[in-house]
Every structure is written in C-alpha cells, then in structure tokens.
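Entry details:
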Amino acid sequence: MTLSPSKKTGYASEIIMVKAESNYSFIHFANGRRLFTSKTLKHWQSCFEGKDFIRIHRSYLINKNFIRKIDRSAKEIFLENDLSASIARSFKMRSLQKIQ
C-alpha cells in the first residue's frame, strides 16, 4: 500500500494507530516511525475496512493487535510504543465489543 506521494510504502499490519489532525493524519508505525499524510482519517478507515482497525474516537483509528491495556474508567486505550488514545462515549460500547 502506498501511503504518500513520496512513494513510501507500508503494511497495515505494521501500523499501530492513525491520528487525525484536521484534514491530515499522522500514521504511527510499530518501528517507531511516524508519517504525516494529507489523507483524512475517514480515508484511512475505508482503506483498512475488514482489517484489524477500529475507530474509537473521531480522531483515532487503532490496530487492535497493538493494544496493551484498556482503562475503562478513564476511557483510554494504551498501545505499543507508549501510545495512547481516548475512547469517545459515542464509540465506547461499539468499540469495546469489537475488541473482545
């Protein structure tokens, strides 16, 4: 899969999380690399449809294979590489059911 116009490639299985920043996204990889892209989170969500990705917040799309811990009271998910993401109330029940 090509991730940017600079022809960098990557595999969905190597992506820990995609974080939205307005109409742009930061893709966080398992090797610690971070890629800034001009694609929206909605675009990435459609690209990863049917894979192990879950939209847990309007700003976060996570790969459930990299989850280390879920803090239900704080509504936060902790991922590999010391990354974390908030779980939105509107996504909470649906998201947590997909993880289990």
Summary: The first strand starts at residue 15 and ends at 21. Residues 12-99 form a domain with the OB fold (Dihydrolipoamide Acetyltransferase, E2P) fold (CATH 2.40.50.1020). The mean pLDDT is 86.
